[in-house]
């Protein structure tokens, strides 16, 4: 309990705000960013390994797409599992296990003797990659509240770095050393997380939430030393301790709030907000007050993942010389399976995508920025319904990927803002899992239809998904730009009503 003698107290949020962003945060950003680079590299290599195995092992189009789908299947399992582990045992233990699984399975993939073994190891890689949000959440829990939006966009830049780095490595490694070396090299970033694990502290927010305030204070003192700052005067207390103190000394106004309101709204809200187990959280997310936001967000995450990973795969599939579909292509049978130059160029499309997200998210707002980028993406994709010259195809895919990168970045800012604190993590986690389903299904389109000489049908399907995602964004109940985060479901509903009035 907080001291009753009137001495000063402070919370983790107040301490982080006073200390500001400094040297410690740069190191935390680099460590967490390494995890984002690792995930991006493991996902990007799917563009190269599939076509290589098609030539080396003679696998079918369906088998090639399955290599990608099993990774997303593993991520679907990992995203849910590692979240539970990190919430119960700590962020550090969570990302330690994810790094071990990702690095180990990634390296063993390079030694896979046959197709089935490769599928098993790639699925395990996906399970490890599913813990990526653990490290991103760990990073954000160190960031002062006013800077979170800006640093989330900067953090996203590490993904772009990973895609460009992987495309660069593949360009040099694949033609000479082959796909096994690419898999082995791509597992190095996860191994670095293990190597420098000892320097990564536990989240002070997590420690405080578990009542371990002494350990949390040690972490905050370390941050203060590295940032050359001072902690606020007083004693560190958790938010839970403050709530208990307020309950023991309620004011007259608080007494009125604690009394059941007419119709029992307060009682219902309290019951709904406190019962947030796995199944209870789902019921809250699908309650009348949140179901519209939840279902729309699920579709937007699905559309984003389906489109993003589809565009990555389309880059390798549309320009790899399928002469049986287009006889006008004067390409020999010795043509490269993958056009590394085009994939390398389109990887840079994520840089302008990040810049667009950074400049529009707080100016135009989340909804307007996302919907505009989805619709512009449709414009870039439309000419691809018919076969285009290689350079024009690359340019169109570059523009489309720029737009999807921007929407992906913004939706990860918007998603936590539309949910109340009581179900925020569950809401974003479930939406991310639905996005993994989009990633699992897109290879069937990007690879299966293209190999079947159905480019028009494939692009039209992407157009429909992207367009409907843009419409879904417009249907979101409210804009979150400049709004305070709500803690309870009934407060979130009041915010929505205020937005609709404005």
UniProtKB/TrEMBL annotation:
PROSITE patterns: MFS, SUGAR_TRANSPORT_1. Keywords: Membrane, Transmembrane, Transmembrane helix, Transport. Residues 28-481 form the Major facilitator superfamily (MFS) profile domain. Residues 246-258 have a biased composition (Basic and acidic residues). It holds the Pfam family Sugar_tr. The chain crosses the membrane at residues 15-36, 66-83, 95-113, 119-140, 152-173, 179-200, 295-314, 373-389, 395-415, 427-452, 458-478. Residues 246-270 are annotated as: Disordered. The keyword Transmembrane helix applies. It is a multi-pass membrane protein. It comes from the Eukaryota. It is found in: Membrane. One of its GO terms (cellular component) is membrane. GO terms for molecular function: transmembrane transporter activity. PANTHER family: MAJOR FACILITATOR, SUGAR TRANSPORTER, MAJOR FACILITATOR SUPERFAMILY (PTHR23511:SF44), SYNAPTIC VESICLE GLYCOPROTEIN 2 (PTHR23511). This is Major facilitator superfamily (MFS) profile domain-containing protein. It comes from Cannabis sativa.
